[in-house]
Amino acid sequence: MRRRAIAFLALALVAGGTVALRLRLEERVTATGVIRPADRPNSLFGALVGGAFRPLFLEYLWTKADALAREGRNWEVVEIHGRITRLDPDNPRAYHAQAWWLTYDLAQSEPDPPERWRLYRRAIDHVRAGLARHPDDWPLLDLRFEIFFSHVAADPYLDRQCRANLGADGLAMALDAAYAMRAAHPDRPAAWDALRVAGEETVERLLNVGRTADGARGMEELAAIGVAMRQRFPDDPVAAEVATSYPLWVPILRALETTLAAFDESGDAGPEGEALLADLEARIEALAGAPDALRTDPEVERFDAALVALIHSRIMGLAQRMLLAKRPSAALPHLDWVGRLARLTEGRLGPRMPYYTEAYVSLLRQIAELDAAWREASGRRDPSAAALRDRLERSLEDLDRRFRERTGRSDGFTSRFVADRFGA
Q1: What is the DSSP letter of 110?
Q2: CA 59 to chain CA mean position, Å
Q3: How far is 139 from 141, CA to CA, in rounded Å?
């Protein structure tokens, strides 16, 4: 009987202690639900939390964070996850949870750019702290990549802050993160996909800023990645498409580099340069005309579209420079090529591809003919020069309007042409 009483008393003490601890925890929650640190490190509460009762306290904090999340009290969720991280620094989920809430529930919706950067920087620091203890943790590696690639690199202000504070822009940080993902998890298709999309974005950015040689070298690296993906994941349709597509672009980008370097500001390169350009145009037209050459998988077609659009616009730029230099006979064959490529790719590579449609090219040809006729009439002081100039100006306005409607911006050709011809 006495043993039963002692056992009952022990059970009651444990139960009572649990209730008392629960009450003490509730008392330490403010009116907004944020748990405050213990008043003194040597308090009984701190000693209990630091010992056998830590799992119970952590369970309470996770439960409280879930409840606050359901109520949309995101700031308080982040504070509680911070408490969890300090109490349980060897749990990678604690770092991930805090960084995830900072990224997707606070920073992403923050309208003030400096505050938005501060929140993303906090998330980055939490991910880094977690990876310092758990360098191969996949959720942390994946979240780091997403923060840099999908958030920082996509926001010009954040990108500048990243470069100023972390030493590299968001895309470079994302590319490094992707390489780390592949090194830690080479058998995960998602790690290779992260490396693929970051590599594509890097090549596209290099080409867009005129670093054609660097873009071509990046394309060679992507080609090697595509081959390795196909070998590792033979049944993956994306791996199959990039393994086929990437190597096709390497010689084209090398030829683009050589061709653009041959032309001067007036779009003149002599017979040798014209031969290079004709060869480049033939290669691209053959690629665009082949039914299976350009990728059609929705996940990966964007990159092919970007490369075609870029080369399309670069060659149009050369033709426009020839027109500005009053060399319409040199420009017209290349305008014809731009029109043919537009016809081959229209509807295949996205709603705004190509930038220069057949209708745009046809109107530009008319402008070239009007310009030649106006300059000739003006030289002869022919009375028809005024009417020709009026038609030319209206056609230029129509040309710029068509490009703006398709792309949301001007390509700058009209303003340069007007300034050169009319001094306005």
Answers
A1: -
A2: 38
A3: 6
Q: Which two tokens stand for residue 307?
A: 């490369």
Beta bridge partners of 35: 29
* H helix runs in 233-292, sequence order: 237-262, 270-289
Residue 8 pLDDT more than 60? Answer: no
Tell me the CA distances in angstroms from 330 to 208, 278, 313, 323, 399, one per residue in order: 25, 12, 17, 8, 20
Q: How far is CA 108 from the centre of its chain?
A: 15
The pLDDT value given to residue 23: 34
CB of 188 within 8 A of CB of 217? no
Residue type, 94: A
Amino acid identity at 366 = Q
Give me the helices (H) in 346-412, please.
Answer: 358-379, 384-407
Q: Which tens digit of pLDDT belongs to each residue from 412-424?
A: 899 999 999 988 5
Of the candidates 197, 317, 327, 219, the residue with the CA atom closest to the CA atom of residue 260:
317
Where does the pLDDT of residue 197 fall: very low under 50, low under 70, confident under 90, or very high at 90 and above?
very high
- Choose between 80 and 152: higher pLDDT: 152
Q: ∠336-337-342 over CA atoms, to 5°?
A: 100
Q: 0.85 exceeded by the pTM? A: no
CA-atom Rg of the chain in angstroms: 31
More confident site: 191 or 289: 191
Instruction: Report which secondary-structure segment, H or E, holds 50.
Output: none
Task: Categorize the per-residue pLDDT at 85 as very low, low, confident or very high, splitting at 50, 70 and 90.
Answer: confident
Chain CA centroid to CA 400, Å: 28
DSSP one-letter string for 7-20 = HHHHHHHHHHHHHH
Neighbour count for residue 235 (Cβ, 10 Å): 6
**What is the SS3 assignment for 318?**
helix
Q: How far is the C-alpha of 394 from the C-alpha of 397, rounded, in Å?
A: 5
Q: How many residues does the chain have?
A: 424
DSSP designation for 150: I
**Is residue 299 within 8 Å of 343, Cβ to Cβ?**
no
Higher pLDDT, 73 or 112: 112
User: Most confidently modeled of 29-43, 80-94, 295-309, 310-324?
Assistant: 310-324
Show the 3-state SS of 174-220.
HHHHHHHHHHHCCCCHHHHHHHHHHHHHHHHHHHHCCCHHHHHHHHH
Mean pLDDT of 392-420: 90
Residue with tokens 């890097």: 202
Closest CA to 89 of 34, 37, 130, 143: 130
User: DSSP 3-state assignment of 249?
Assistant: helix
